[in-house]
Design brief:
It is a single chain. By secondary structure, this protein is an alpha/beta fold. The protein is 43% helix and 20% strand. It folds into two domains: 250 residues, Rossmann fold; 123 residues, Serine Threonine Protein Phosphatase 5, Tetratricopeptide repeat, CATH 1.25.40.10. A nine-stranded mixed sheet has the order 1-2-3-5-4-6-7-8-9, with helices on both faces. The longest helix is centred in the N-terminal third of the chain and has 21 residues. 39% of the residues are buried.
Length: 380
């Protein structure tokens, strides 16, 4: 596999200091050179795993996906991701890349080679050279949105998440996609985005939507959004943020609604909720996420509110690992000993907390107040 670096790093307006490169990739499968864009998070860490997002029709979608990925990873809890975009506009090559037989609905010869180019050259190249996570997303628009469905025809889908923007559907795709989605046991996200303006594919898209909605599998996460004010051109700018919101929803910090409706109402120990949330993230995305301070505080408050003081001990152990220089771990442990009737252990533990760095609402004054109260109550 040979590829030639074409353009050095440049900076994208909305994502300053984001590393975005363009190169000409020499494809053995296609026997031609292709323009490819790459976006890498500012500080790549070999000890971290990064989801990989493949963007078809990159001239239309690449910068939008990069900006959205950057925004969501910074402000909304999504993981930092590597994004690769394939240019397809020059000489209308997209229609050759994604061509399908009008009778069978299956890829034509050139599109079969394009399929192999992406799955056997581009993706392996990134997996080999960068710390990519198993979790992969593909984004397509119009004819390329239809093309991405062909990965569903494989026994093991290369992608975990599909973002399909106003697909121009091949024959029988409205029944084939639901059938294939219903056959997978692995977790699959499928986001379908449709404009309000009617197109030749609208009827088939709505039939496909109905078929997917009929699937009853916990492993399928399906989302369908219609934007009434959008036409077939402008719809490409709609819905990408919503797709990130849906796909990475569990990465978000625990919300007020989640706290009230799921944590407070559960009969399980409060800490179990936090443990299960982060275990599911690791199982689904293939990498672990550091526990957010927001989530730790939500579990702490819930433990106090529900008088589930046993949850304070595993929470304190977690904080000692994730926030080792702060008061969190020893302070929560001190409260645990205080609540189970171990005042001497509580006092010693609050003394340790007093020596650590302050964080959030935990101050040295607060630890000192705890220590003074214990001494006064028990005459230490």
């Amino acid at each position: 596999m040979r590829h030639i670096l074409f353009l050095t790093i440049f900076f994208l307006g909305l994502v300053s200091s984001a590393q975005t490169t363009q190169e000409i990739f020499e494809s053995f499968k296609l026997q031609e050179r292709r323009d490819v864009h790459y976006y890498f998070p500012e500080k790549l860490d070999d000890n971290k795993k990064y989801p990989l997002i493949l963007v078809l029709d990159a001239e239309y979608l690449f910068e939008q996906v990069v900006a959205t990925s950057k925004f969501y990873s910074r402000f909304h809890g999504a993981p930092e991701s590597i994004v690769v975009g394939i240019n397809q506009s020059k000489n209308d090559i997209r229609f050759e890349d994604c061509a399908f037989d009008r009778e069978t609905g299956l890829p034509q010869e050139k599109s079969k080679k394009f399929f192999e180019f992406l799955g056997m050259e581009i993706i392996p190249y990134l997996d080999l050279n960068y710390s990519t996570a198993p979790f992969k997303i593909v984004v397509g628009y119009d004819i390329s949105a239809n093309f991405q469905n062909y990965w569903l025809f494989k026994d093991n889908s290369l992608f975990n998440a599909y973002v399909s923007i106003s697909p121009t559907l091949a024959p029988e795709m409205e029944t084939r996609v639901p059938s294939r989605l219903g056959s997978f046991d692995k977790q699959i996200f499928y986001q379908l985005i449709l404009e309000g303006e009617k197109t030749k594919s609208t009827e088939a898209i709505l039939a496909m939507d109905k078929g997917i909605k009929a699937i009853k599998k916990e492993s399928l996460h399906y989302f369908f959004d219609t934007y009434e004010d959008a036409d077939h051109i402008s719809v490409a700018t709609y819905g990408i943020g919503k797709a990130f919101d849906n796909i990475f929803s569990m990465f978000k910090p625990i919300s007020t609604t989640e706290y009230r409706t799921q944590i407070l109402t559960s009969d399980e120990p409060v800490f179990n909720y936090l443990e299960a949330k982060y275990k599911r993230i690791e199982d689904l995305f293939g990498f672990s996420k550091p526990v957010a301070l927001n989530d730790i505080m939500a579990i702490y408050v819930a433990s106090r509110k529900k008088e589930d003081f046993d949850s304070l001990k595993p929470l304190s152990d977690l904080c000692k690992k994730q926030y080792p220089d702060t008061m969190l771990g020893f302070y929560f442990e001190g409260e645990y000993y205080e609540q189970i009737g171990e005042p001497k252990k509580a006092l010693k533990t609050f003394e340790k907390a007093f020596l650590m760095d302050e964080i959030d609402f935990l101050t040295k004054e607060l630890a000192l107040e705890k220590m003074d109260a214990l001494k006064a109550d028990f005459g230490f």
